[in-house]
Amino acid sequence: MRVSVLLFPGSNCDRDAIHAFEAVLGAEVNGIWHKETDLKNPDLVFIPGGFSFGDYLRSGAIARFSPIMEQVQAYVARGGYVMGVCNGFQILCEMQLLPGALLTNKPIKFLCQDVFVRVEPNQSPMLQKLTPGQVLRIPIAHGMGQYFADEATLDRLEGEGQVLMRYCSAEGSLDEASNPNGSLRSIAGICNADGRVFGMMPHPERHVEAELGSEDGLILLDSVLGILDRVN
Amino acid sequence: MQEPVVDLALALDHGLTESEFETACSILGRTPSFTELGIFSAMWSEHCSYKSSKVHLRLFPTTGEQVLIGPGENAGAVDIGNNLAAIFKMESHNHPSFIEPYQGAATGVGGILRDVFTMGARPIANLDSLRFGTADTEHMKYLIRRVTRGIGDYGNCMGVPTVGGEVFFDSAYQGNILVNAMTVGLAPRDKIFLGEASGPGNAIMYVGSKTGRDGIHGATMASEEFSEESAEKRPTVQVGDPFTEKLLLEALMELFQGDAIIGIQDMGAAGLTSSSFEMAGRAGSGVDLDLSKVPMRETHMTAYEIMLSESQERMLLVCKPERVQEIADVFEKWDLSASVIGKVTETGRVRIWGPDGQLAADMPVDPLAAKAPVYDRPRAEPPYFKTLKAADLSAYSDLDAEGVGHAMHTLLAAPNIASKHWFYEQYDTTVQTNTLQGPGKAEAALVRIKGTNSAIAVTSDCNPRFVYLDPREGGKHTIAEAARNIACTGAKPLAITDCLNYGSPENPHVMWQFRESIEGMCEACTALNTPVVSGNVSFYNDTNGKPVFPTPSVGMVGLLADRTRYATNMFSEPGLAVYLVGVTREELGGSEYLSRLHGKTEGKIPTVSLEHERNLIEFLQKAISQGVVLHARDCSLGGLAIALAKSCFAEDPVGLTVDLNENVSIAAQLFAESAGRVVVALRKEDAAELTAHVQTFGLTAQAIGMTGGSNLTLKIKGQTLFDQPVAQLKTVWRDALAHLLELE
């Protein structure tokens, strides 16, 4: 299993992702600098969190012009798997590989805390090892995570099973108090039409080891990679 | 443009005294040029020269087998095993933060990060020690919000977790807030880089952001008192660019892998001036600089302005001329420009050619340091000291059940005690995936070291009210509390960095506080074997002649050799036996209780027994590493009752019933802040083992209660004085600050 982690100037969760995929999940990982043009034949392209290009224009707005992104577009067109977390999710939206946008959090400030997300009924091949209704505890750390799309898009996403996860309470119920950034319809993660491009705001790579408080992120990343099955 | 004529009047304008100006002239053998005057003014400012503090700082113990690098470099370093060094320092950014809170705080974080990664260490943790006035004015709330945002925006973008810190509110800081930032980094112990310009003929490269006019005379500003005109000094506050600093960090991390860099120095206070003099000074060499090569973002800057600019995110590095290209290539990859702006010489002088090609400064390095002014300024015990110490507190010591209930609620909602989640949730606390225990979860933050079995523990502490009421004893408290907090996780305290925030050194009462508190700290550092490895002094924290509380913020680093065993500070389950280790005395002086309930900052503060503290620290390490003690919490602000209440506030709150029977008043029993006390919780079956450890270390411990139920029940000698649902108390504690800061 080969994962290519994209590296932009300002990425800051790249090393965490590499640690999770390599040291914890045992994948072969290549860090790919944004000026490169070879994705190195991955099974998954992972776009990590951070502040690519400082987020100075708009989160993720500049990264989409990097040379490697043409390769990512082509890779997606060939049916490749791409996962973006936090700034990676913002970049995927800016590239229009995913619909909608991520706006400034409803309480206008950066928020870092553990949240709960509920897996929604979906067809994405990336979450098939998770059960709809399953609640995962995963940290968020972002200032711009409020998911926004027009009503028609939201209806379509829901209708097509493209909403992969929503912010929820520990018990899995949806309410305002459990929606940390004011995302429309509590959306925390979505996929594209064929379920192969997946973006989410919470950071599963931060919860892959029991000593850091939860292994729920490992469950999720394992579903994306399907690695542990092969090992066992 | 015609440069001003340098004379005594201009020197006085630059903050030099008449005798300092005379010394400057005698060092050069002539009147300084305008640029040279600027350099003298910056180098001999209080901020850069430590002229009023030097004679006192020499008292600090700075050595120990754990110390790899002590004070004098960009940051200090301690050995943490596995061939690794923890490199750390705390620094103040008080004046800029009061004038422009967002940029002031942000660049404070940026500056301390650079101090650490300059040495080859990747920053792994940030902490912030903040002091604000009471948050009852819109202006103070604005300062609090903007400082917090500034810290968050910088550290978050850098991808360095903010894992701890402290926030203290008191009207003593109404006109002068304190913003102290600390960074801990990790480097191979045999690959630490120093700020030396060695090897004549070697190239001096400038890397990072371009130079502008921002921050000119920042160091001089930080060496003056605040007055009504301070707001006009906004242009002397620097502007931060964390993205550029992140690039600088990654480019340097790449370069540090190899051996191209010989020496490297951050351009912090007094920018190019102090970095060039310090690098030459450490190596005993000289430096020639050609300012026409300095990358600029403004036009027509003079030599004077370039030398004194405090533009952020810039560094000087020294390499062999044949390695310049290789270094430039790495910076190019990271979209940063690097230019050769000079060379190392053996002249022992710093020579500067201005953008116009003229020699703008030619100054000897060593005499500038050796003949730098050093003042042993007059000290006098302030009249308040004896008066406040003698205050009779007996009127405050009696409490009935109603009084206890009122006090509990008031204290849990007191800004100094209430949950600080409003602050730390705006900081990324978990990036880098090493945060075992972040803010509020243990008495010190625990950060694991990947690839080893260990973790470091890190905390920042200071109770400035204690230091104000009794600087010497308060100084001891500061160190003892930090060490106790480290030990409450099970880690071994290693060393400290100190950030000494005081009023004007020209005020003899302030100098007395300074000296007394340092002597107290020295005594404690020696007794607890926690030497000082780095630090910073911030004087002139006064507004219109009124100094802030003397505030020696201390950052301490400890080592947890086996991170599978450590203690958190909240009860995890019912049925745990709860003990108080240490003794509560009739010591209400200087307590949060007195301040909050009675509006008094007075009384004799609790006495610190350093021998007891040492035993307590060793006991905690032993009992925690053996798995006997599961939870440990230091009794500090709010005393035992607040320590017990906060221990109940886990994510799933756990109730507690205790019965206290010390022979002291009810108020003291519950709210005195006697030193050397820790609440510990353990499984009932481990009680005998706990007692054995307690005896081994010559301590006393009392079984005071048991966790369980949903209420916090406090009894004294069998009589119930307080009995309320923990969930309700937790809400009071959790929401108080957010309400105060978010609502108008």
**Mean pLDDT rating of chain A:** 94
Overall average pLDDT of chain B: 95
Amino- and carboxy-terminal Cα gap of chain A: 14 Å
Strand content of chain B: 15-25%
Fraction of residues in β-strands of chain A: 25-35%
The low-pLDDT segments of chain A are none
How large is the radius of gyration of chain A? 16 Å
Spans of chain B with pLDDT under 50 lasting ≥5 residues?
Answer: none
Query: H/E series of chain A, N to C?
Result: EHEEHEHEEEEHEEEHH
Number of DSSP E strands of chain A: 11
Could you name the CATH homologous superfamily of chain A? Class I glutamine amidotransferase (GATase) domain
**According to CATH, what is the class of chain A?**
Alpha Beta
- Major β-sheet of chain A, in short? 9 strands, mixed
Number of helices of chain B: 26
- Work out the helicity level of chain A: 10-25%
Q: How are the strands of the largest sheet of chain A arranged?
A: 2-1-3-4-11-10-9-6-7
Distance between the termini of chain B: 50 Å
Shape of chain A: globular
Compose a concise summary of this entry.
The complex is a heterodimer of chains A (232) and B (744). Chain A is an alpha/beta fold. Chain A has helices at residues 14-24, 68-77, 87-94, 151-159, 216-225, 227-231; strands spanning 2-7, 28-33, 44-47, 82-85, 101-103, 111-119, 135-142, 146-148, 163-168, 187-191, 197-200.
Question: What would you note in describing this structure?
Answer:
- The complex is a heterodimer of chains A (232) and B (744).
- By secondary structure, chain A is an alpha/beta fold.
- Chain A has six helices and eleven strands.
- Chain A has helices at 14-24, 68-77, 87-94, 151-159, 216-225, 227-231; strands at 2-7, 28-33, 44-47, 82-85, 101-103, 111-119, 135-142, 146-148, 163-168, 187-191, 197-200.
- Chain A has a nine-stranded mixed beta sheet, sandwiched between helices. A two-stranded antiparallel sheet of chain A has the order 5-8.
- Chain B has 744 residues and is an alpha+beta fold.
- In chain B, 62% of the residues are buried.
